[in-house]
# Entry
Amino acid sequence: MPWNPELEELRKRRKFAEAMGGADRVRRQHAAGRYTVRERIAKLADRGSFHEVGALAGRAEYDPTTGELKNVTPSNCVFGRATIDERPVVIVGDDFTLRGGSADAAIREKPIMAEEMAREFRLPIIRVIEGSGGGGSVKTIETMGRSNLPGQIGETKAYFLMTDNLGHVPVVGLGLGSVAGLGAARLASTHYSVMTKNSAMFVAGPPVVARLGQNLDKNALGGWEIQTRAGGVDHAVDSEDEAFACARRFLSYLPSSVYELPPLGPCDDDPRRDVESLMRAVPRDRKKVYKVRPIIEAVVDAGSFFEMGALYGRSIITGLARLDGKPVALMASDPFFYGGSWTADACQKIVRFVDLAETFHLPVVYLADCPGFMIGREAEQEGTIRHGVRVMAALNQTTTPWCTIIMRNIFGVAGAAHQPGGRLSLRYAWLSAFWGSLPLEGGIEAAYRAEIEASDDPAKALAQIEERLNRLRSPFRTAESFWVEDIVDPRKTRRLLTDFAQLAWRVLQPGPRGLAMRP
# Structure
């Protein structure tokens, strides 16, 4: 064969790439309980489907006398195309065995091309992140012989693509070690992110923040409990294999890009079945809380609910599910936290979730029990109302079909934001529904102060007024004026929701939402 020498050269260079940072550093990676980047990609993608791009890129050493190749130190970015559940994706990963993933061993064009490939071919992208994710190191000054000015042309393009892809394709981030700087930005700039519980994420690591007088180890600074409660990362798992499974499952609900509709899945769960437990789900005593996750599981296709951000903004539960095989975005009030009131972080969680639904054409189901915005000094200090208004704007800007089930409380401004304004949405109220401009508690004392104070028995007068008003607040009286469209038997909820999903699929249209069309 005439090209045998070149073929052998190719094999030789590929072996250098596959060696990564060398046997000792690979052993160190395994000793820390972590896979190498190549092992991660192999476990994440369908077997044998990964087609690497740029494997030969790196820093070569040649014999000064003969000019023969002696060694190649590969780039610490590995990327290419693969399939996950037979659907094409782009995977880009950091090789921590080479300078901890920092810019010293990076070729900037590789992660940029990964993002471009996802955008141009309309493919989901999964970022497998460890270290600084191609970001800087103080050693960069010496190894490169100059100091980098942040925002150079190459960097600007990388930052643009990192965020711009959020409006075009599903973006998943896996934090599988200590993730800092640019790596943290890449992990946060996703639709869904997962970290392992022995990982950490921070803008700057412990040695840097120690200069501020904060002597913290990596877990105290940016461990999984910190980040999942702060909303920096959506989920934490015990192992890398679990992280890969989460990524695969998340992508199964979404289209490959905004130019497609979400994929339909199989369903062997009767879409018309009644759910007897829902008649007992909400206590008659409105002061008692109840568990809403069993309600979610009961009305969606069996086993299909995939929760996101469980430890952040906990008065709202968000996740993806299927109704008769059709993917939907589902959010539900959780009365176990602040009675389901909207806190500042819950508002931010809702905005991000509604944006996800709008971007990828997911109909929204809202199981509502909202007594209003969180009140009190702390709520005011957090600017809750400002975040709440942003939620209202996000809801009103949506075009995706929307269905609300009012389970119990709907009060105040936050209660009013249980559906988009200015367009049709479906709304059903359970028999347990209870609403008003504001709760009677505290409101009666303000509105009827003169009458109560003039009474010989203020406590009795207060009770009489409350009883009188409660009779007028029957949801059936609201239905008489068509201020609520339907009051329904809770047991029929699943069939109502699957009917909604069927209607929604008739009007869903692929394409970008609120984006400037490219020439």
The first strand starts at residue 51 and ends at 53.
